[in-house]
Amino acid sequence: MTIDTTDLAARRLDLAGARGFHVPGAGPARRSAISALTRQWLTQVWQDATDSRATEGIALAAVGSLARGDAGPLSDVDLVLLHYGRSLSGEDLRGLADRIWYPVWDAGVRLDHAVRTVNQCRTVASGDLAAAVGLLDLECIAGDAEVVTAARSTVAHDWRANARRRLPQLVEGLKARHARHGDLAQSLEADLKEAHGGLRDMTVLNALAAAWLTDRPHGGVDEAHQVLLDVRDAVHVVTGKGRDRLTREDHDAVAALLGQPDADDMLTTVATAGRTVAFALDGTVRRAGQSQRARALRVGPRRPQLNPLGFGMFEHDGEVVLGPRSTLSTDPLLPLRAAVVAARNNLPIAPTTLANLAGQTPRLEEPWPEIARDLFADLLATGPGLVSVWEGLDQAGLVDRWLPEWAAVRSRPQRSAVHRHTVDRHLIETVVIAGGLVRAVSRADLLLLAALLHDIGKVPGAHDHAATGAPLARAIVTRLGYSAEDVEVVTTLVREHLTLIDLATRRDHQDPGTVGAARDAVGGSREVFDLLVALTEADASAAGPQAWTDWRATLLRQLAEAARTGWEEGSVPQPGKAVTVGAQELQSVAAGEPRVVVRPQGGSYRIDVFDRDRLGLFADTAGLLAAYGLVVRTAILRTIEGVAANEWHVESPSNEPPDEQRIVRGLQRLAQGDRAPLGLLDRRRQFAARPSASAGTGSPGQARALVVPHASQDATVIEVRAQDRPGLLHELGIGFAKAGLSVRSAHIATYAGQTLDTFYVTEFGGRLLSPAKVAQTVAMVIDTCDGTLPSA
């Protein structure tokens, strides 16, 4: 009997067109119908090819999309003619194969074919990783089903038995493929199959589960898979070709076929699905690696190895996990603390931990308390580690909890040729780059916050995203609990984030009108101007090489230099309200005993220290607090009639409150020359990386120290900007003491991991520093901050 060679490809397309693309549930039904049609057609081919002869030990099997039941209208057909090697002669086997392959070719379907024995399948799978993954899906189309079962079970057994050896190969293959095809979510012309987050990654997820190393996520991942399959099907119908790339010229037609309002909404849906698959794959690969290592090391029951990271967080097998005593149900700060710890250590948060943080921790009160703002700023300052941690937070729904406005820009495409990322990813990349520019500004936290929000107005329907984003940013920063002045600064930065680059590239820098326009954009504030310059550079750099060329960088620098001419640099904290020392404190200090008062402040602590003023007291106090594991957020140091009245605001990563008497005893021993209380600080320094002096992505480069002229008639005022680290204040204090300088007062502040410290220093006898002494002191401060001087 001769089979009907009607064009199978056309019949599959017709069937796809008859199954509506935007009807709920149509996608799985369409693919099931296409697979059933193809199987039925191939069964008829098999019957005609075998002419009803006995087929014991021979079968026609499928791999790929046909085997999985998710074939698209024009997907390839991947077939294997399987046999035991003894059923037919070689000539008869070749004849049978030809009688199957030629009708498929004649039907207009792309065919990938092979003729193999069961043992050959095993051999091919052992030497070809891609073939092994494909053969795990082997399904019988027609003939002897037992030979297919034998081949599939043999390959699956070998896959599980050799998982330890093959997993590293699989991971390397994934990295190479993803590097070659890019990230599906970040491409305007995504490869729906091969890109990171594409359809082939779903096949890998199933292969990892088949190795019995780990289970794979379901739920949202399966929904994302269906989305990508629907888009792939639409591409086939729109183009009439069995390709997997979603090109620009097909965006509108594919969106219309899928029932999407426009191409941007369609691309947002695709990017979101790709991100979901990519996140699931990355987590599952880590799970598989952990399982493999556990198998290799297991010789009996073993306790998990937990390395403490602070704030109740631990590193376990390359991920951040919650400790056994974490207060999930009572601590709203826990998600922020976990995110900061993870990003600083460039580690992902374990999926189970993310789910617990999102599902069990209470929401932060609004406006946010100061400690929450500080933690959020710390998170934004973590550099490249922020990218993957933010993705995990976003996947878990924590970003929506903190920033509901984020949903409108999530996965939104950018049509501009200069942009290489979706809107939300561009914002995070801008934050990372802005982290390398914080030394040029007085408020690192406001720069990073503006970087995070500068394109928050790129929502559907917005014509001027800067104007649209400004009120959104105002609402967000107000909700985060910033002062009215800080809210105005961030709002200005968002509204004007395109102003400087427009002036730099389109106007004459020498024209006073251009300089005036640049200054007017920030209300005449030099500090806000510096923030806007840094934001402009970070925004352009994050967009891509076309947006930040040497020419554009030069033009922005020239405009900034012209605008800064005549502006004074440096802002000195005001002395503040006059303070007095109470009788109880005076009595204690007169008796030679420091007085320490600790007050809880909702997640942080205020420590008031009263002691006799002496050379090195500032260094000793700062060193002692660091040795006890406390992180200084802000401090105000004053000397009143020979009594040091110092106010320190600290955090305790160990969650243990500061011990007043322990601090008193430590200060007493240090005053007597006993340096033993600082021994813990040396050990803590060993685990704290020194800042790099080289600039780069996310690296702010060398520390800055500048003298603020005319700031005080009684002292020399030095402003310091540097990366914070355990013991830095102690090292600076030691440097001042060794130079014979007295710290008359100091204003210590940490914004987003960067210090903005102002010291009022004098020489012995209260004299102002000489010019030579100023130069030596500035050099000492920079070297200390950059870690080039040995610590005391």
Write the layout of secondary structure elements.
Elements: H1 8-18, H2 26-50, E1 58-63, H3 64-68, E2 77-83, H4 90-106, E3 111-117, H5 118-127, H6 129-135, E4 139-143, H7 145-161, H8 163-181, H9 199-210, H10 220-239, H11 251-257, H12 263-297, E5 307-310, E6 313-316, E7 319-322, H13 334-344, H14 351-360, H15 370-380, H16 385-396, H17 398-402, H18 423-434, H19 444-453, H20 465-479, H21 484-495, H22 499-506, H23 512-520, H24 526-543, H25 550-564, H26 583-590, E8 595-600, E9 605-612, H27 617-627, E10 631-640, E11 643-651, H28 660-671, H29 679-686, E12 704-707, E13 716-723, H30 728-738, E14 742-751, E15 754-762, H31 771-785
Parallel strand pairs: 2-3
Antiparallel strand pairs: 1-2, 1-4, 5-6, 6-7, 8-9, 9-11, 10-11, 10-14, 12-13, 13-15, 14-15
Helix pairs in contact: 1-2, 2-4, 5-6, 5-7, 8-12, 9-12, 10-12, 11-12, 13-15, 13-16, 15-19, 18-19, 18-24, 19-21, 19-24, 20-21, 22-25, 23-25, 24-25, 27-28, 27-29, 27-30, 30-31
Walk me through the structure.
With 792 residues, the chain is of the alpha+beta class. The protein has 31 helices and 15 strands. Strands 8-9-11-10-14-15-13-12 form an 8-stranded antiparallel β-sheet. It has a 4-stranded mixed β-sheet with strand order 3-2-1-4, with helices on both faces. It has a 3-stranded antiparallel β-sheet with strand order 5-6-7, with helices on one face. The chain is elongated and about 110 Å long. The model is unreliable at 689-696 (pLDDT under 50).
